[in-house]
Amino acid sequence: MGHSEDSHLDAAIIRALQRDGRASVLDLARAYGVSRHVISERLRVLTERDGLRVVAALDPGVAGHHVLTHSMVCVDGPVSPVAEEVGRLPNAVFVSIASGERPLVFESRHGSSQELLETLETVRAISGVREIRVTTYVEVLRGFFVPKRRDDITVDELDFELIAALQADGRTSYRTLAQVVHRSPSAVRSRVQRLVSAGVIRIAAIKSGGLSASRFATGLGITLAGRSEPVRQFILESNSIEFAARSHGAHDFIATAVGSSSTEVLATVEALRALDDVAAVETWAHFDLVKEDYARAMGQ
Description:
Elements (H helix, E strand, L loop, with lengths): L2 H17 L5 H8 L3 H13 L4 E6 L8 E9 L4 H8 L4 E7 L5 E7 L2 H12 L4 E14 L14 H12 L5 H8 L3 H13 L3 E6 L9 E9 L4 H9 L3 E9 L3 E7 L2 H12 L4 E15 L8
Antiparallel strand pairs: 1-6, 2-4, 2-5, 3-4, 3-10, 5-8, 7-9, 7-10, 8-9
């Protein structure tokens, strides 16, 4: 198989695992008309070389995280030491060094507004931090965890044990999971399927997120001049917006546009700016991803 064929197959496998992280090697082989050996080998390469992971992400609400925020920080001096310190905070799920006058960007999740205030106090106490601008997410529209539906089911200790194992490796076999929780493989299978169908967890491939010469990621802070619906539709239909949330605070929407070139990302930004209902689009280029841990452990 040639290099370009490999890369096409790799892209197809990643897309399939983003839809269903537990798709079997046999299912993938049948879908793409290749042998199971070829699929197993491509999965090995994607995992070992490209840092592809398949993990379970937990609905933030189930984890007790009801306040989700995006913060941009003014820093005096080098940003790296501050970013590393913010990355050590358990509430921080995303930390990046970016361009612009607020070069440290982080997302955090909290059980309450009080917990958010305590986190902000901790960040302000870090040497070099001058000012924090906070935007609160009202609804996540696109991202690693956006459940298509959310049923109200009771989640017990056994469920949380299974979720913890799947957060480490979403493709762990039912046989192995059964050994971890001391239940039968069939009982474990029905538990996991119940959690997935209720929207409590989503098991999917997460790219290393890494920024590279062929992967430009730009943060967008969108301010409305009119109705939100046309902007929401644009975001949901865009091929280059990987993450987006309806928000209040500094911006009305926060998003991340990703492309194989800066030209590709710029086209998305310009198309957004052309919408009548958009007043302004602020942008910041992500230079270095310090932490990306959306599938982190359950709430404390």
